[in-house]
């Protein structure tokens, strides 16, 4: 028997439910594969909709994943601010560890962090791109404030820490290629040992060095 196609959402609440179902499906599929491997057709099939019907709710597949990226920023920002409020997380190494650990614990977010500037932002309307950047920068601002409560660094330096943490997390996650044939190849060949990237410890080392350097050389930074 052919399944009955879902009725078009007519109320605002029904529309929100349908949008959430689309986001949930995209999140699940991307977690099982990777962001770049999930198509709009895949998401539509998971929700039980025709691909053309999806365009009533999101302009492109990239807009769907940008919405998940914003969701990831909010979730990550909330955890980091909670962890940085703990008395133990006041030294550069502890702060670096909190940032790296919380990012590593969010594989989909790391994947999205790499994909957003490379292709997601480039395949949506300018209005959508503006809304996305506005929401992300609001989370960056809250994290910057939290960092400056712990370390005597400028606003621009704190912003650079967040930028470095998230951009490196995205890049290192792609290089690590977890769960792929490439990762298995790197691990199976001794001559490729340097290609095996362990994201969390590497990111922790990078951020620790950055924070120590910023704290010791803060006079060279512009005051914002």
Report the count of strand segments.
0
> Which band does the percent of strand residues land in?
under 5%
User: Could you tell me the mean pLDDT?
Assistant: 90
The main pleated sheet reads as: none
Q: Pick out the low-confidence regions.
A: 1-5, 220-224
Shape, per Cα inertia axes: globular
Write out key terms for the chains shown:
disordered N terminus; disordered C terminus; 10 helices; 224 residues
Would you kindly provide a written description of the structure presented here, covering whatever features stand out?
The protein is mainly alpha-helical and 224 residues long. Helices cover 70% and strands 0% of the residues. It is built from ten helices and no strands. The protein has helices spanning 12-32, 40-47, 51-54, 61-84, 92-104, 107-120, 126-150, 155-176, 181-188, 199-216. It is globular, with a radius of gyration of 20 Å. 31% of the residues are buried. Residues 1-5 and 220-224 have low confidence and may be disordered.
């Amino acid at each position: 028997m052919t399944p009955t196609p879902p009725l078009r959402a007519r109320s605002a609440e029904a529309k929100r439910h349908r949008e959430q179902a689309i986001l949930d499906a995209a999140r699940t599929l991307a977690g099982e594969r990777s962001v770049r491997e999930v198509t709009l057709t895949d998401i539509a099939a998971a929700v039980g909709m025709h691909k053309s019907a999806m365009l009533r709710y999101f302009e492109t597949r990239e807009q769907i994943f940008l919405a998940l990226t914003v969701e990831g920023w909010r979730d990550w920002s909330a955890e980091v601010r909670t962890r940085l409020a703990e008395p133990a997380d006041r030294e550069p190494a502890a702060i670096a560890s909190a940032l790296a650990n919380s990012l590593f614990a969010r594989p989909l977010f790391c994947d999205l962090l790499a994909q957003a500037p490379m292709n997601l932002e480039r395949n949506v309307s300018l209005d959508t791109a503006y809304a996305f950047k506005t929401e992300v920068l609001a989370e960056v601002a809250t994290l910057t404030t939290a960092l400056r409560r712990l370390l005597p660094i400028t606003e621009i330096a704190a912003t650079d820490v967040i930028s470095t943490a998230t951009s490196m997390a995205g890049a290192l996650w792609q290089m690590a290629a977890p769960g792929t044939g490439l990762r298995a190849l790197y691990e199976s060949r001794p001559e490729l040992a340097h290609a095996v990237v362990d994201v969390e410890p590497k990111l922790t080392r990078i951020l620790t060095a950055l924070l120590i350097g910023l704290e010791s050389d803060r006079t060279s930074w512009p005051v914002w």
